[in-house]
Amino acid sequence: MRSSSGRNSGNNGGSRGGNSGGRGNYRGAGNSRDDRQGGGSGGGRPRNPRPEERKYDVGGSGGPSDGPKKGRGAAARGGAKGGPKQSPQRGGGRTAPARSREYDARTEERNRERYANKPQVKTPKTFPGAEQEGERLQKVLARAGMGSRRACEELIEQARVEVNGEIVLEQGMRVDPEKDEIKVDGLTVATQSYLFFALNKPAGVVSTMEDPDGRQCLGDYVTNRETRLFHVGRLDTETEGIILLTNHGELAHRLTHPKYGVKKTYLAAITGPLPREVGRMLKEGIQLEDGYARADHFRVVEQTGKNYLVEVTLHEGRKHIVRRMLAEAGFPVEKLVRTAFGPIGLGDQKSGWLRRLTNTEVGMLMKEVGM
Predict the structure, then answer these.
(1) What is the pLDDT of residues 71-130, one digit of tens each?
(2) One of 236, 290, 296, 348 is an active-site residue; which one?
(3) 185 an active-site residue?
(4) Could you give the maximum distance between any two Cα atoms of the chain, in Å?
(5) What's the rounded Cα separation, in Å, for the pair 236 and 223?
């Protein structure tokens, strides 16, 4: 019995010894794995170098390296992870000399001289209707302020539009706004880049675009306009009322020329009593120091006691003509306002206000002087 129990205990001891030996081998497996990775007697894959053992290729002048380069060497030479990018050099590392500005200027000048006398090649236009010149009539009318394109097409359908004296009966006609004369209902359409304004000039404003003495002038009301404007005719400093501003030279010339006889209407405040023959006297003509002056129309608008408000219409434009005529007749003017210039009336426009003339008003002005 003793011997059998001894054998069992021996076997158990052997088992424990084997187990303990297994545990001992497992705990020490790391050392043997390092040995195998390091190329020890165990064999297996090569060991990865530790951080302190790694070699970084930064473009030094070291000897030839074994195998492909790894690590930060490629990145330091301009790879994806940083480092300056280096362009390949030619000729064994020599850089090409930079060209001077004088050399580039001479080269450009030679190229210009070479192609200066060669004819310019015009590429063909490929979009539909490119071979036709000018703009569509309804587009020109719409841009001139006659309404939408559809409304302008209706004007053409109603035979109300004429180009160069002929009524247009078909849609899509092309015109040149700079050369062709376009009319709607007999009134010329200002299709060019012309500006027309009416200003209700207050008293005390000088009828000049610039005043060297620094007084308030007409130019102060149009300082924000890119196009240079000029006034049509004049009003003396104390006279109020409508005055036209434009950049259309021919129209301005005709509106002020005595040949076309454009009428101007004034309201004058005078003190009576006013005899009946004053109107006849003004229409027949009054002798002034620079010749006879005649009024085209005269009427009394309002009377309050001895204070009269009279309307005078005349086509002359001499300096202070209305004031001098009434003063010569024995009735000095206390206040004078011009209420109309040709077909353009002042209406309810406030003093000092500037407004742009409508296309219809511009057409009426042009018709007044035969344009």
Answers:
(1) 454 444 444 444 455 555 454 556 656 778 888 888 888 888 877 777 766 655 554 544
(2) 236
(3) no
(4) 173
(5) 21
